[in-house]
Amino acid sequence: MERTKFVLDQKQMPTRWYNILPDLPQPLPPVLHPGTGKPVTPDDLKRLFPMALIMQEFSPESYIEIPEEIQAIYRMWRPTPLNRAYRLEKALGTPARIFYKYEGVSPAGSHKPNTAVAQAYYNKKEGVKRLATETGAGQWGSALAMGCMMFGLELKVYMVKVSYNQKPYRRIMMETWGAKCVPSPSMDTQSGRAVLAKDPDSAGSLGLAISEAVEDAVTHDDTHYSLGSVLNHVLLHQTIVGQEAMKQMEMAGHYPDIIVGCVGGGSNFAGVYLPFLRDKIKGGKKNLRIIAVEAQACPHLTKGVYAYDFGDMAGLTPLLQMYTLGHTFVPPPVHAGGLRYHGMAPIVSHCYKLGLIEAKAEFQVPVFEAGVKFARAEGIIPAPESAHAIKVGIDEALACKESGQTKNILIALSGHGHFDMSAYNEYLTGKLADYAYPEEKVKEAQASLPKVPA
Amino acid sequence: MERTKFVLDQKQMPTRWYNILPDLPQPLPPVLHPGTGKPVTPDDLKRLFPMALIMQEFSPESYIEIPEEIQAIYRMWRPTPLNRAYRLEKALGTPARIFYKYEGVSPAGSHKPNTAVAQAYYNKKEGVKRLATETGAGQWGSALAMGCMMFGLELKVYMVKVSYNQKPYRRIMMETWGAKCVPSPSMDTQSGRAVLAKDPDSAGSLGLAISEAVEDAVTHDDTHYSLGSVLNHVLLHQTIVGQEAMKQMEMAGHYPDIIVGCVGGGSNFAGVYLPFLRDKIKGGKKNLRIIAVEAQACPHLTKGVYAYDFGDMAGLTPLLQMYTLGHTFVPPPVHAGGLRYHGMAPIVSHCYKLGLIEAKAEFQVPVFEAGVKFARAEGIIPAPESAHAIKVGIDEALACKESGQTKNILIALSGHGHFDMSAYNEYLTGKLADYAYPEEKVKEAQASLPKVPA
């Protein structure tokens, strides 16, 4: 019997999150206050986040214990499976070993609950009654809806209008878990009203939805803000995925040569690669390749600039040093909504700047082609975001076929595509279009990058 | 640490299916040829099914080895988890222990692939090139699409038209896995054309879709027919679920007092309960209760008659001794499409007749209420079919609260509701209606029960 799925007992579930900050070869640039240009202090952030998360954001500790209350909820679906993709290998005729770590078994269908549950827990513990957040395609909004429901918090989700209209099922999912969801731009915030006044038909953007959610939080006494990616504490919570994957690869008797994952804000992929990168930094496999895959329509790493920028469109957040296309950039409406964000997590950006990871940008038509190939071999229909990782994983496996090398390829399969079937329909009926890299719009957006006060 | 999820290593996955036939206290009534009234022979069925499946249908062996090729595919998602529903117990304030065996982790999102993969395998092995089948809500059609894709068979699915229109995502799922799917009634068969001639707007029914698929198979030389429930060999393949659940309950240190599952054709629930029933028959827990839950709109067990009837609307199948509402009965359009079938698996019917199992019928509004309660406690959003089982599981847990008894309740959670979110929306917005038991229509349908030739 050859094992296809490598399962860990719950006793083997990691009980700590891994924090890369103290292990980075150069320290992460500080987050700056946009008014003073000085590094932000925990106090500057406490209107938005609970202190426990703020301390995690800056923590010098390599490992942070996962509270039992959070572990108990993780155990409802964790540890998640790691599979050997025997059938895909055979379909490709490659000597490579392909593995995928699958987060789609969570009730929300993606990796997002790993941080949603943690964020809801810490907010609840500090007496917060209500959270506000934004969501693009709905993966994050639905995960936080589940997290808030589990700790008895109210939640309001500002959902990018184009997705709100295209993906009613994700909205209903949030409502099933008790959250309130409105299309963004909405009339409920100053930021939303300002955009609607100029353009009543605005389809919205993730940057704008963040502005609305942040404004909601600062204008409601009982409310905090919650972000589903980008920030250090979010990436931290996702490291449970990579730590599990390490144990499972060990069960499988192999160590990855290549790790590939899609990046929107960066948390899914960072969660998988950071524990392996720690190994590499500490003297492990030197030639381990870590490849971030972004949408060609939103190529933050490959075409962005490394600069201080706002996390949101309206400029309400602190300044983050990151690869950015400019905070006013609105990406073309590709189906991988989770990849449509102007910036990239500071930790991932820093890793890229230091040459610790690589990046590739992919068009959506070949990405869906890879997604269908995967579904026909492995059964699982991947989310369009995850299919970006599969595309590059397949390319690397085919390169092995060419070269005759038996490499171990680990794909971060962040979620399933059950709520993206209309996108698959477009692909299958030949109606799916590609969007060229919108160079002019990026130039325009980058012209309005904020100046850091001296 | 309290385990929430009980996981089996793939080495512990059952390698045999369990066949209840030789263990039944009274033999199952034979399947009859509608022309002669004599028991059908394997030869009578070989135009529809491969001989391996026909032999399983009548097998006197208690256990049948699962071929390695099928096991290899099962291992892509099996063993499936069994969870302790701690949060649901707490929400109900019950002393009962609630467990659920979850089949929603399969790529198709339900238990159906367990038999789909097996049926595709045996057909392929006997040289068949193409299968025809029907599907209601699409769970079966998508599972068989996956199974056929894995063994390189073509598949045509006749999908009940009301579901074809309401659930485009299930259709796209089938197409993603390479199947062809048409709405039934279709113009592609005699049975379909006859109905359309009388009623061009016919919404279709499962019984009619079966007629179309059977006709497709017998009129194409390279084609076999495949059924997703009802028949003995289908229930046989599903027993892997119950065998796993037994091992997992043992891991949990408890034995069920009550097993509850929804029944449409009966295969999901039989797959879970038959291995436990074997235990009971062989002298195990005497007071184990096994409760089948059906839709009030389609109450085959509680309101049907135990009689010989056709499996399909047009009367193309052999005669099965079963609880039936009459093969011409078209149930009201409740959302649990998988429960809208006029008959009940002969094995399940026989068990019910012998008093080995109980039955309850439930209305869909309280069923969705239970489904939302489950989702808000356990995260997983259940399929409307599975929510029927949850409803009765919760009722039994509340009865324990009343009586102060600590019973162990095992719920068969056959699938997730990701493709049923519009039904949840109807429920959440107060628009969901109940359908009274359609007594007159049943009387009419039962008046046309076939006469068995003497």
Present the secondary structure layout.
2 copies of one chain form a homodimer.
Chain A: E1 5-6, E2 16-18, H1 42-45, H2 51-57, E3 63-65, H3 68-74, E4 82-84, H4 86-92, E5 97-102, H5 113-125, E6 130-135, H6 139-151, E7 154-160, H7 161-166, H8 168-176, E8 180-184, H9 190-198, H10 206-218, E9 223-225, H11 232-252, E10 258-262, H12 267-281, E11 289-295, H13 300-303, E12 305-310, E13 319-324, H14 346-353, E14 358-362, H15 364-378, H16 384-403, E15 408-413, H17 421-428, H18 439-447
Parallel strand pairs in A: 5-15, 6-7, 6-9, 7-8, 10-11, 10-15, 11-14
Antiparallel strand pairs in A: 1-4, 2-3, 4-5, 12-13
Helix pairs in contact in A: 2-11, 3-5, 4-15, 5-6, 6-8, 11-12, 15-16
Describe this structure in words.
The structure is a homodimer of 454-residue chains. With 454 residues, the first copy, chain A, is α/β, with parallel strands linked by helices. Chain A has two domains: 17-65 and 112-225, Rossmann fold (3-Layer(aba) Sandwich); 78-109 and 240-446, Rossmann fold, CATH 3.40.50.1100. Helix content of chain A is 41%, strand content 16%. Chain A contains 18 helices and 15 strands. In chain A, the strands form four sheets. A seven-stranded mixed sheet of chain A has the order 1-4-5-15-10-11-14, sandwiched between helices. A four-stranded parallel sheet of chain A has the order 8-7-6-9, with helices on both faces. A two-stranded antiparallel ribbon of chain A has the order 2-3. In chain A, helix 6 (139-151) links the parallel strand 6 and strand 7. In chain A, helix 2 crosses helix 11. The longest helix of chain A has 21 residues, at 232-252. The first copy, chain A, is globular. The model of chain A has no long low-confidence stretch (mean pLDDT 96).
